[in-house]
Write a structure and sequence with these properties.
- The protein contains 22 helices and four strands.
- It is mainly alpha-helical.
- A four-stranded mixed sheet has the order 1-2-4-3, covered by helices on one side.
- Helix 3 runs parallel beside helix 6 and helix 5 packs across helix 16.
- It is globular and about 80 Å long.
Length: about 525
C-alpha cells in the first residue's frame, strides 16, 4: 500500500535512456541556445510580449469571421438589447419558429452586440483578439514560474496554434481567459498545498453565462481535489472540507443563469447528439494530413521521453482524459493544449533540474511588471486605434453569401428558403428566416439527420420536403450535391451563381418574374446592426 501511495504522489518515471553528457542534443545545450536567442526578453517583458503577439496574430490572421455562427450570435445579442429579455423560444427560423430554445451563451452574445454597435466588425475583431491576448497573458505568467523564455514561448506558441481552427468570433473564445485563470487558480492552489481561493468563484458565475465550457471547469475540480486528498492523508478531513466547500460553491454559482439546472445539463445533452459529425468541428481529429496538433503531440511525447518527465498519476489520467476529448472532437483541441501546457510546466522544469533547483522562479521586480503592463496597454491601444481607423469591410466569404443574397429580390426573400447549413447565420443577420442554421441543439437529431439526407442528396426526399415546406428558393454552396439535383428538377431554375453560393428559384406564377440580376438585399456595412425581426410571410 505504501508503494502505491508513493506512486500516486510522485508518478512513474518515463525515463527510457540516459542522455550522455557529450550528446549533441543534451538538455544543457538546448537550454543555452534558448537563453542566447531570448536573452533580451524575460520576466514581465516576456509575458507582455507573448500577450501582445497573440493579440496581433488574431487580428492578422483574417479568418476570425469565417464561421457563420458569428452572425446569429450577433442577432441574438441584438434581440436581447431590443427586447430587454433573453429569448426562450426560437425567434429566427421558420421551420422551428416558437420552439423552445436556450440562449445559453447570452452574456457573450450581449457583449458581442454591444461591441458591434460601437465599433462594427473592427471592434468585434478587437474584442476577440483581446480575449486571446488575455488568455496568453495568464498562461504565460504562470509558465514563467517554471520555464525559461525559450521553452515558455514554444509551449505557449504550440498551445495557441493547436487552437487555430477554433480562433473564430464565437462565445467559446471569450471564455478562453476565464478557462486559463481557472486552471491557473487550481494548479497554484495545489502547488501551495491549499484549497483554491474563493476569489476564483466569481469566474464561474461569469463563465456559466458566457459559454457551456464552464462544465469542464467544474469537472477539473475533481482531479485536483483527489490529488490533494492523497497528498494530505495526515489532515484528510480538513482537506476534504476545504475542497468540498469550494466545489459546492462553484456548483451553486454555475446554476445562477437564466436556465438554472437546465443550463448545467445542456452541454451534456449536446455532446450526446448523434448528428454532431455533420458539423466539422464536432468530428474526430484527422491524422491523414500533418497538422499543428499532431506536431504538438509529437513534440510533447519527445520531450517527456527525452527528459524523463515524471507526471503524478492523477494529473496523467487527467491529461489522458482531455486528450481523449481532443481526439474525439476537434473543437476540444484548443482547451486541451492550453490546459496541458500548464499541467506539464512543473514536471518539465523538475525533469531538467536537480530537486533543489526545481523551484518556481521569483515573481520579479514589481516596477518591471508595472512598466511591462503599461507598455502592453499602450501597444494594445495603438493597435486597436489603427484597426478602428481602417474599418473592416465584409465581402463574400465561405459562410457569407453576400452577393448571392443581394441578388434575391426582397419579396422572394420573405418566402420559405432551403439553405446551406453554414449560411443560416448570415440569413438571420440579414433578416431572412432560414430553414436551418448553426443552432443544432435546438433543431435536434431528427431534423439534423433529415437535413443531411436532403443534401446527400435524396432527390425524392428533397423534392418532397421542398413541396411540404412551400419552399420558393434555395441558397446553397456550389459543391453541395443538392445543387445538381435542383439544376435538373422540373419547375426550378438558377437565379444567381458565384464561387460562394448558387440560388435557385421555383418557376411559378408568383416567382416567374424574378430574373437574374434583379435587386435584392444589400450586404452588411462595416457597422450595420443585424435585422432581429425577420420579415413575416
Amino acid at each position: 500500500m505504501s508503494r502505491l501511495r508513493r506512486f500516486i504522489d510522485k508518478g512513474p518515471a518515463v525515463r527510457m535512456v540516459e542522455t550522455p553528457a557529450n550528446d549533441t542534443l543534451s538538455p544543457g545545450l538546448v537550454d543555452r541556445l534558448f537563453s542566447w536567442l531570448f536573452s533580451g526578453v524575460s520576466g514581465p517583458r516576456l509575458v507582455a510580449f507573448c500577450s501582445l503577439a497573440a493579440f496581433v496574430a488574431v487580428l492578422s490572421v483574417g479568418k476570425i469571421f469565417d464561421d457563420g455562427d458569428t452572425y446569429w450570435h450577433l442577432a441574438t445579442g441584438d434581440w436581447i438589447l431590443l427586447h430587454g429579455a433573453i429569448p426562450t423560444t426560437d425567434p429566427f427560423s421558420y421551420t422551428f419558429a416558437g420552439a423552445p430554445w436556450q440562449a445559453h451563451e447570452w452574456l457573450s452574445e450581449l457583449l458581442m452586440a454591444l461591441v458591434f454597435r460601437a465599433g462594427g466588425w473592427s471592434g468585434l475583431a478587437l474584442l476577440f483578439a483581446a480575449a486571446v491576448g488575455a488568455a496568453a497573458l495568464i498562461v504565460a505568467a504562470y509558465l514563467r514560474r517554471w520555464l525559461a523564455p525559450g521553452p515558455l514561448m514554444l509551449a505557449l506558441g504550440f498551445a495557441l496554434a493547436c487552437g487555430a481552427p477554433s480562433l473564430l468570433a464565437r462565445p467559446h473564445l471569450l471564455a478562453f481567459p476565464v478557462l486559463a485563470a481557472w486552471v491557473v487558480g487550481l494548479v497554484v492552489a495545489r502547488e501551495e498545498g491549499r484549497a483554491p481561493s474563493w476569489r476564483l468563484l466569481p469566474l464561474m458565475l461569469v463563465w456559466a453565462n458566457l459559454h457551456g465550457s464552464f462544465v469542464l471547469g467544474l469537472a477539473l475540480i475533481g482531479p485536483f481535489a483527489l490529488e490533494a486528498l492523497v497528498e494530505n492523508r495526515h489532515r484528510l478531513w480538513a482537506t476534504l472540507r476545504d475542497w468540498a466547500l469550494f466545489s459546492f460553491a462553484a456548483l451553486a454559482l454555475a446554476l445562477v443563469t437564466p436556465h438554472g439546472i437546465e443550463g448545467l445539463i445542456f452541454p451534456l445533452k449536446v455532446t450526446g447528439m448523434t448528428s454532431l459529425p455533420v458539423i466539422v468541428e464536432w468530428r474526430s481529429a484527422d491524422f491523414s494530413k500533418l497538422s499543428v496538433f499532431e506536431i504538438a503531440l509529437l513534440e510533447v511525447l519527445f520531450l517527456c521521453l527525452w527528459r524523463g518527465v515524471q507526471v503524478p498519476v492523477v494529473r496523467l489520467l487527467l491529461l489522458l482524459g482531455l486528450l481523449h476529448m481532443a481526439l474525439q472532437h476537434i473543437r476540444h483541441q484548443a482547451a486541451f493544449a492550453l490546459i496541458a501546457a500548464m499541467l506539464l510546466a512543473e514536471p518539465l522544469a523538475r525533469a531538467k533540474s536537480r530537486p533543489a533547483e526545481a523551484l518556481p522562479h521569483p515573481a520579479g521586480d514589481r516596477r518591471a511588471a508595472v512598466l511591462a503592463a503599461v507598455v502592453l496597454g499602450l501597444a494594445v491601444i495603438a493597435v486597436g486605434a489603427a484597426r478602428l481607423a481602417l474599418p473592416i469591410t465584409r465581402g463574400d466569404g465561405v459562410n457569407s453569401p453576400i452577393s448571392a443574397l443581394a441578388a434575391v429580390p426582397p419579396d422572394l426573400a420573405r418566402r420559405p428558403v432551403f439553405n446551406e447549413y453554414g449560411f443560416g447565420g448570415y440569413l438571420i443577420f440579414m433578416g431572412v428566416r432560414p430553414f436551418i442554421d448553426g443552432r443544432a441543439d435546438m433543431y435536434g437529431d431528427t431534423f439534423m439527420h433529415l437535413y443531411s439526407s436532403l443534401t446527400r442528396p435524396d432527390a425524392a426526399a428533397l423534392r418532397a420536403e421542398l413541396e411540404a415546406r412551400d419552399v420558393d428558393w434555395t441558397i446553397l454552396q456550389p459543391t453541395n450535391p443538392a445543387v445538381a439535383v435542383l439544376d435538373e428538377l422540373p419547375g426550378w431554375r438558377r437565379l444567381h451563381a458565384d464561387r460562394i453560393a448558387v440560388v435557385h428559384v421555383r418557376i411559378s406564377p408568383g416567382a416567374s418574374n424574378f430574373a437574374p440580376g434583379a435587386g435584392g438585399i444589400a450586404g452588411p456595412s462595416p457597422s450595420s446592426s443585424p435585422t432581429t425581426a425577420p420579415p413575416t410571410d
